[in-house]
Design a protein that fits this description.
The complex is a heterodimer of chains A (about 230) and B (about 250). Chain A is an all-alpha fold and about 230 residues long. Helix content of chain A is about 85%, strand content about 0%. Chain A has one domain. With about 250 residues, chain B is mainly alpha-helical. Chain B has one domain: Up-down Bundle (Four Helix Bundle (Hemerythrin (Met), subunit A)). The longest helix of chain B is centred in the last third of the chain and has 43 residues. The chains are: A mainly alpha (about 230), B mainly alpha (about 250).
Chain lengths: ~230, ~250
């Protein structure tokens, strides 16, 4: 089988399993909704003239970082509990293909959750009468995609490690959040620039997207190179 | 036991050198005019507000004269910090050698190097926080260098958390090595960031430094690296002894 067909097979497996059980999307979506409720509790104390828009980018990424922790853990726990990862290793599949198959699967689920949560977040917290307008939507989408690529790539590597440890979820959070820090900083700054649309926000935005893209490339290369060792252990 | 003796000698010489650097910092090093530090608001320090020509435009904070003795920490803080970066990179190099060779000794070396690096990181943090209080009037500020360095410390702690949560030896070694490599990517970022993003953290070490400043710095740096290598050697000796005890135990039981 060519690498491309192997990749499609792994991706298809994840999607078919998700369509049958609907476990990951429901748990991630529900969790994200619950976080929004907690946000409401927090922001309800801030008063009516508090500008949620100024901190909206940080709040938004906070949902996604925690939701992705949940999703990444689920995604790899399945592989391990049902012995699927071992079967994949026995089959003549190239190791890098396994990495990309899993990472792209995680990326797709994360993007679906983001596509649900971002409009909801906008209508609940930002769409107030007389609210200032933000930048174009495609810019926010670009920030979300660049951030999600990094999350899915590094997350898949770290989650494959953490499912084999004693404290699965906890270990994933401890490893994942510090490693993600530079990327998060860049995408939060980029998204904030778009949401607030201050003068000259376009320059800040592209600077931050450049940083995020650079980080994505470095980390994906590292994760791609190291995944084989993780699977072999 | 020869190695342990080497370790003790190294730590002793390193201690002497760093003490010498510390004393030289006070008695021979010339005080340089590093300029001012701009803080967002008025803070509670004994340091004078800078003259008018150094003040930023109204509403952008207040410039303070940097106190003369805040330079003195440079001869301790910077050698410790640079040693921490270096030892972290060495740990990652051992991690890569472990991944390519699968020999357990490289895993031990990588782990011990990481421990040594963590000691230096904690020392950097302590001296750094003291310096921040003296120079900026706050104990902590979320500025690029401090933030990336703090994150680096969290990663190194996470490395040991990861190790402790895996039972199988080979798997533990491999995962730890993979994480060490990923974590080490942050070291150059943290090192370079004050040269890329403008921040309050001074970049003191640059061309054209007076020799009376450079000399104690280099002595301190050499001393610090010797202490680091001494700690590393001592811990390696302990590890080897522990392995021998384990083998002896197994032989007795078997």
């Amino acid at each position: 089988m060519s690498s491309w067909r192997q990749f499609k097979a792994i991706l298809k497996k994840d999607i078919v399993m998700e369509l049958r059980t609907k476990e990951m999307l429901t748990s991630m979506g529900l969790y994200a909704l619950l976080v929004l409720v907690v946000y409401y509790i927090t922001l309800s104390q801030a008063g009516a003239d508090f500008e949620v828009r100024r901190i909206a980018a940080g709040l938004l990424w906070l949902v996604f970082i925690f939701t992705s922790l949940l999703g990444l853990n689920r995604s790899l726990v399945h592989e391990k509990d049902q012995g699927c990862l071992e079967a994949l290793l026995i089959s003549p599949t190239d190791r890098p293909v396994i990495f990309f198959g899993k990472a792209v699967g995680n990326l797709i689920f994360l993007l679906i959750v983001e596509a649900l949560i971002v409009p909801l977040f906008f209508f609940i917290f930002l769409a107030r009468p007389g609210a200032q307008a933000g930048g174009p939507v495609w810019m926010l989408a670009l920030a979300l995609i660049l951030g999600s690529i990094g999350i899915a790539g590094v997350g898949t590597l770290l989650a494959t490690m953490s499912v084999n440890t004693k404290g699965k979820d906890f270990i994933l959070a401890v490893l994942f959040i510090p490693i993600m820090f530079p990327l998060l900083l860049a995408v939060v700054a980029g998204s904030a620039a778009v949401l607030q649309a201050d003068p000259e926000y376009v320059r800040t935005f592209w600077q931050m997207m450049g940083l995020a893209a650079g980080y994505d490339v470095i980390m994906l290369l590292a994760a791609f190179g190291l995944y084989e060792f993780v699977l072999g252990a | 036991m020869k190695q342990l003796r080497t370790a003790i000698v190294l730590v002793a010489i390193g201690g002497l050198l760093t003490t010498a650097a510390f004393l030289m910092a006070f008695f021979t090093a010339e005080v340089q005019q590093f300029g001012t530090v701009t803080l967002e608001q008025e803070v509670d320090t004994v340091f004078p507000v800078a003259p008018d020509q150094f003040q930023p435009p109204a509403g952008e904070g207040i410039a303070y004269v940097r106190p003369w003795f805040s330079q003195k920490i440079f001869y301790f803080h910077v050698p410790v910090a640079e040693a921490s970066f270096l030892v972290l990179i060495i740990s990652a190099v051992f991690a890569i050698r472990f991944l390519t060779s699968k020999r357990a000794e490289f895993d031990t070396k990588s782990r011990i190097a990481m421990e040594t690096a963590l000691v230096f990181v904690v020392l950097t943090m302590i001296t750094g926080v003291l310096w921040t209080r003296a120079s900026w009037g706050v104990w902590w500020e979320w500025e690029p260098r401090l933030t990336t360095y703090f994150i680096m410390m969290l990663m190194m702690i996470a490395y040991f958390v990861l190790r402790n949560s895996i039972e199988e030896e080979e798997r533990r070694a491999t995962y730890a090595a993979v994480f060490a490599v990923v974590a080490a990517i942050n070291a150059p970022i943290s090192f370079m960031i004050t040269r890329v993003i403008p921040s309050n953290h001074p970049v003191v070490f640059q061309p054209g430094m007076a020799s009376s400043n450079l000399l104690p710095f280099i002595i301190g740096q050499i001393g610090m690296l010797m202490i680091g290598y001494g700690i590393y050697t001592a811990r390696m000796t302990e590890e080897r002894l522990r392995e021998r005890v384990e083998i002896a135990k197994e032989a007795l039981e078997g």
